Design the sequence.
């Protein structure tokens, strides 16, 4: 069978992403710390709840509360209740140098099985009214060292996202695949206007239809994801609304295609419209969202995936996922195109 | 009274299902997303299948 | 391409429009009626409603006006134009005519809105400058869609279905710029929005000029 290799490649890559994306574990993280605040000059016992941790199994747990890049408090006593629960005692110092009444502390935990992991703003240290605005005893300035870095594949832990970080491979990759398919559609639209070969119009329509399917799936999966991370199906989020507009534009494209029976006219009009719509879409999807705060990862203090935060382990599945979804999309589009060709041939034979 | 009880039952069932989906680090949100993508592809295949059947019938009838 | 001929076509369009007084008067009446209904039902229009109202009226009145711009003339007339002019000259003249019409309409709507509910704009330069930029993009899109509908079935429902989603991004940007000029929100990035509007204008008008000769041949 001619041209089977890329279909097979798409299927195998998708299987790889599906299996790898689900079975690779998450790195350990901290889900809860209580109490979450305390006063200077007191002792505190933190109940720490971890996720994917091995506190009891490892046994050599160490914990710090870190003020800045230099100062930190080591634990005074530590006991592991079980693999996910840890009790750590800290002797809080008499004061700290800061203009604010309260300082956020970062919790760092290290053991031989989980390696080192942190929770920023885990504990808030409030100044006692009698204490002064200087760093007093109790802070240690030695660099923290001796961290463990266990080997093995694991996805990064993000506090709100948790396991849903795996959706990067499915939801986010869907958008990239959609854009690649749209570009293929526009390419054939331009080709059609150049050559007036009706086959290019059939191809352009096929790719655009599958891209639209991906877009709708992207919206649905996005809203499912949002339900579990931000507790809402639809938000004011700029990216979401802009994409919804993009979908409206392409639904109008489908309507336009059904509006005329004349094949040549339909081909010319839809080619022109799809080029125009694609150009109108560029600022919509790439530029405007960057100017405005968004709920999306990477914007406005949300747990980020983009840029430096797209961890190397995520990359290992994210890029293959884009390729796999694009190949599957091209496959689906080619089925549509072949159907349209057959229908075209049949209609004009009789 | 019964209605009220029913309501309460539905409500608690709802929150229970949400909690179930949130349990184990929200892994079921990932499952739901994969199911949606799979369903989308299956719907696409069904529609193409229907279209092809129609074309086949057309060709058969006209021959 | 010839500037003089572009000007000639432009003048011809304007004179035709002026001869049909009902068209211009109808749009003005439409704007006045909508503003009056809103004024009576809201009693008092606050700045937020003022800006939203302005753009909603602009969208629908503009859409109505520009739809006809390619539909009002008969097929035979087009054949005649086709032998006479370069398509590029025709589309540039038509685009500028539509743009002028939108600007005029904008002034009329702002006038009526101010008459009934005051003029809340604090930064007039930003308000008019930003609106002029955005209106250009909107007229490009409306012109393009009216060309498409005219060379298609000439169906006006299709026109609004095609045009409204396409103008939404520009309108959203315009709403933001207007809100800044009314001081509903304070935003330091408003110059970026203006640049974006200008960029969108340039891109879209370029694509329009590239695509029109192809569409025109029918």
Sequence:
């Amino acid at each position: 069978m001619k041209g089977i290799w890329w279909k097979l490649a798409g299927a195998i890559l998708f299987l790889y992403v599906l299996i790898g994306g689900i079975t690779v574990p998450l790195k350990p993280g901290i889900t809860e710390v209580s109490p979450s605040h305390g006063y200077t000059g007191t002792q505190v016992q933190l109940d720490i709840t971890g996720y994917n941790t091995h506190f009891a199994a490892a046994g050599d747990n160490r914990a710090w509360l870190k003020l800045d890049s230099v100062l930190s408090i080591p634990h005074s006593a530590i006991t592991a209740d079980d693999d996910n629960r840890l009790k750590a005692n800290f002797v809080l110092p008499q004061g700290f140098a800061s203009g604010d009444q309260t300082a956020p502390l970062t919790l760092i935990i290290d053991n031989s099985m989980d390696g080192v992991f942190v929770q920023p703003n885990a504990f808030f240290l409030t100044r006692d009214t009698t204490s002064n605005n200087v760093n007093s005893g109790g802070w240690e300035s030695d660099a923290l060292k001796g961290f463990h870095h266990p080997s093995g594949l694991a996805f990064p832990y993000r506090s709100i996202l948790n396991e849903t970080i795996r959706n990067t491979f499915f939801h986010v990759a869907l958008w990239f695949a959609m854009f690649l398919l749209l570009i293929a559609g526009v390419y054939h639209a331009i080709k059609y206007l150049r050559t007036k070969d009706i086959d290019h119009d059939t191809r352009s329509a096929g790719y655009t239809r599958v891209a639209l399917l991906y877009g709708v799936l992207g919206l649905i999966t996005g809203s499912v994801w949002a339900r579990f991370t931000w507790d809402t199906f639809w938000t004011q989020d700029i990216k979401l609304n802009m994409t919804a507009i993009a979908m409206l534009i392409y639904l109008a494209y489908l309507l336009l295609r059904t509006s005329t029976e004349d094949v040549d006219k339909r081909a010319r009009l839809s080619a022109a419209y799809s080029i125009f719509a694609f150009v109108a879409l560029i600022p919509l999807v790439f530029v405007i969202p960057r100017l405005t705060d968004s709920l999306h990862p990477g914007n406005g203090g949300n747990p980020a995936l983009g840029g430096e935060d797209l961890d190397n382990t995520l990359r290992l599945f994210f890029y293959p996922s884009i390729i796999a979804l694009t190949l599957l999309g091209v496959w689906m589009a080619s089925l549509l195109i072949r159907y349209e060709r057959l229908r075209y041939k049949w209609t004009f034979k009789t | 009274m019964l209605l009220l009880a029913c309501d309460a039952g539905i409500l608690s069932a709802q929150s229970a299902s949400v909690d179930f989906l949130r349990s184990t680090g929200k892994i079921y949100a990932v499952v739901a997303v994969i199911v949606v993508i799979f369903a989308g592809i299956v719907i696409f295949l069904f529609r193409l299948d229907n279209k092809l059947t129609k074309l086949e019938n057309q060709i058969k009838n006209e021959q | 391409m010839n500037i003089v001929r572009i000007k000639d076509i432009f003048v011809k369009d304007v004179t035709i429009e002026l001869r049909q007084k009902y068209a211009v008067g109808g749009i003005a009446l439409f704007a006045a009626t909508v503003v009056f209904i809103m004024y009576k039902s809201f009693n008092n229009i606050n700045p937020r409603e003022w800006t939203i109202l302005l753009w909603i009226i602009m969208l629908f009145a503009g859409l109505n006006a520009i739809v006809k711009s390619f539909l009002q003339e008969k097929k035979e007339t087009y054949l005649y134009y086709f032998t006479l002019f370069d398509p590029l000259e025709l589309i540039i003249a038509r685009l500028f005519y539509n743009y002028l019409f939108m600007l005029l309409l904008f002034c009329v709507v702002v006038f009526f809105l101010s008459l009934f509910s005051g003029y809340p704009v604090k930064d007039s330069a930003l308000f008019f400058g930003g609106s002029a930029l955005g209106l250009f993009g909107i007229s490009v899109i409306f012109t393009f869609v009216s060309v498409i509908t005219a060379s298609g079935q000439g169906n006006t429902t299709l026109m609004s279905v095609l045009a409204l989603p396409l103008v939404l991004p520009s309108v959203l940007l315009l709403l933001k710029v207007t809100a800044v000029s009314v001081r509903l929100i304070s935003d330091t990035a408003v110059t970026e929005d203006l640049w974006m509007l200008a960029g969108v204008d340039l891109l879209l008008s370029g694509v329009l000029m590239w695509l029109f000769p192809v569409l025109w041949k029918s």
About this structure: The interface with chain A takes residues 141, 144, 148, 151-153, 155, 158, 161-162, 165-166, 168-169, 172-173, 189, 192-193, 196, 199-200, 203-204, 207-208, 211, 214-215, 218 of chain C (CB under 8 Å). The CA atoms of residues 121 and 182 of chain C lie 4 Å apart.
